[in-house]
DNA sequence: CTGCGACTTGAAGCGCGGTTCAAGTCAAGG
DNA sequence: CCTTGACTTGAACCGCGCTTCAAGTCGCAG
């Protein structure tokens, strides 16, 4: 064994993702193995970082196809930069919304309203975001 | 027509949700019609508020089944309160993560790194959340 | 009474993000 | 050499959140 390359089981263990998910990501163009050891995929350690990024973005509501686009980007890809900027605005909005939701949940834990959902303080989470 | 009750088309238009989605939500116990006008569902206007709450929670990553649980909660439901408190922590973590991601995206829009994803500043989004 | 169109139903279908399965391949160790 | 066991493949399947479809039922206008 080379020592610098990791096999899929190792990557799965260290990334917390299932091996099946890694193969799935490969089909979708999100990652690729450096080579093969026989039939077996051999991954560079950097792949772990990339997977962390993928997990992060996916948790943030990005689709795998979007993530794949981002991963291919160079600094000269203008359209992609616009896409990233748009995503940034989207994420900002989500942060604001989630922050309100968090405050509502925090309140809910101590609220005395009977149908909890009727509490006006709880409902603040629902305030419409000003038109985008 | 009664004037206080809305039919499904009206609710769909005003909530921005498809009629099929409203029927789906009914099957899942998220909403219910006040009654029927012939076969047709007749909704109370408050349903619109409830739908706004549902959309908000769903966008925040809650499952419909979770939302249904929350919607049934009274102030004495201790287990549910714990669930809400747990969700609050979860949402807080998400907010933190998304905030980092937003900062990374903001940077990405002006970054000169070639594989954009290799930029160390970009990668800060990926910093592991301290063990939960 | 005759459309018409918006509603009703249950069942099937879809896109996403995977997991599971069956069958096969390979490297290392006894 | 032969077994073991982690890997390989493609294809089928899953849960979620809906949408679409086919077939039927209303209420209202003409």
TrEMBL record, chains A, B:
Give the UniProt keywords, A-Z. Answer: DNA-binding
Q: Is DNA-binding found in the keyword set?
A: yes
Q: Which InterPro entries match?
A: DNA-bd_dom_put_sf, MerR-type_HTH_dom, MerR_fam
* SUPFAM superfamilies referenced in this protein's UniProt entry, alphabetically: Putative DNA-binding domain
**One protein family per Pfam:** MerR_1
The record's SMART domains line, in alphabetical order, gives:
HTH_MERR
The source organism is Nonomuraea antimicrobica
User: Gene3D superfamilies this protein is in?
Assistant: 1.10.1660.10
Which segments constitute the HTH merR-type domain?
Answer: 5-73
* Keyword Ion transport appears in the UniProt entry: no
Q: What is this protein called?
A: Helix-turn-helix domain-containing protein
């Amino acid at each position: 064994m080379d020592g610098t390359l990791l096999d899929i089981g190792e990557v799965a263990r260290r990334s917390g993702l299932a091996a099946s998910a890694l193969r799935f990501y490969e089909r979708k163009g999100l990652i690729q193995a450096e080579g093969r050891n026989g039939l077996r995929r051999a991954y560079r350690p950097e792949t772990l970082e990339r997977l962390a990024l993928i997990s992060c973005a996916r948790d943030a509501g990005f689709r795998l196809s979007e993530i794949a686009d981002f991963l291919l980007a160079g600094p000269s890809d203008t359209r992609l930069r616009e896409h990233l900027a748009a995503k940034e605005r989207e994420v900002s909005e989500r942060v604001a919304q989630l922050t309100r939701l968090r405050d509502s949940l925090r309140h809910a834990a101590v609220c005395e309203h009977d149908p909890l959902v009727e509490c006006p303080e709880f409902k603040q989470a629902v305030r419409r975001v000003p038109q985008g």
